[in-house]
Write a structure and sequence with these properties.
disordered C terminus; mainly alpha
Length: 464
Amino acid sequence: MTALDRQDAPVTAAAPPEAGRLRYVVLAMLFVVTTVNYADRSTLSIAGDSMQKDLGISSSELGLLFSAFSWSYLIAQIPGGWLLDRFGSKKVYGIAIFLWSLFTMAQGAVGFFAGAAIVLMFILRFVVGFAEAPSFPGNSRIVAAWFPTRERGFASALFNSAQYFATVAFAPLMGWLVTAMGWEHVFTVVGGVGVVLALIWTKVIYPPRSHPRMKRAELDYIGSGGALIDMDAPAGGEEKAGKSGGGNLKHLRTLLSDRNMLGIFVGQYFINTITWFFLTWFPVYLVQERGMSILEAGFVASLPALCGFTGGVLGGYLSDSLARRGVSLTAARKIPIVVGLLLSTSIIICNYVTASWLVVLIMSLAFFGKGLGALGWAVMSDVAPKQIAGLAGGVFNTFGAVAGIVTPLLVGYIIDTTGSFDLALVFISACAAMAVVSYAVIVKDITRLHLDEEDALDSRTASV
């Protein structure tokens, strides 16, 4: 039995004292990259109100611009996953970081083309979506390669929680940039940070076997614990990846016909509706529905995001702790997901209160719950077939990207039609409830999907 087949290894074994912590340096890099990734995505939400005034953009048009990213993000998910499987995470992801940062910087120049500003912004948001497509499947692949099963929940939850930390870290800065320098500088500053980060990436990220600082004790520990350490191995690894990547599209039917995988995919759609409301319309909601200034909205938006970050880290820690205490992996993953998403349904209460502080408190509770329950990427690291981890992550993120299209458009339409956010919050609350149904009813056991009888035999042997 090889390390590739040990995803079902016991989760109770502790790391030996001599094992290093290089995997956490890699995880820190994923966290920073994902933070900047989501800062890029949320630039338009902070700059949106000022852009509406300067460029004469309606709410429906702003909703269209919000959705532009997700159209291409959706289209590119499966090709992005294929590229990761074919060429490896380090190369594909690194190029992606540079490109999406460059296109983000370019958005700061659309004001110079007043007559075509909306079209140019749509195009640039569209190409940013293409460039960012490999990001989360890449995160999932790297975590699967670097972390044993007993640590994978926390690792996946941490990089996923960076989406909330991005608001905590960047929303006040972006709000200040809009007020002090103009909305254009939101894009140029955040994009410039990403360009620098792309250069750092090349010095930090490697496959486990080829990292220049890897210790044998740590490699043995993560490999024996279920880490897929040969996923992007240079010695024959690229050839293997090429063979898998070249033919893995035929496995789409397998992924979409498996009940567990489909439940996880559908659950991600509903979870991402909450994410995209906060990323796009939440700051606008604070300004237009609750009467806050842009600067106030930038700071206030960071409070629910901080709660989401706290919930995200806690959800991963709780899940891994339950698994180490002998709770089945299925229960260890599902308990935080179901409890957290039930808390997220509380967002509907905002329709029945008037005090701004109470609205922020309820939104913070809802986003804390969303963070607690956002273990989808940890689940994907547990269940994705090892030969097509990138492709499976791409399909998973495709469902999430559909929510990124539907949510901004639908919320914009609701606002233009009804003149308020009330029905929009009902929609978000209902999606949180449907995410609970997906994981509580559709998804059964959290186990890795095998593509052929040989893999299934290896798994049965590993569990004996």
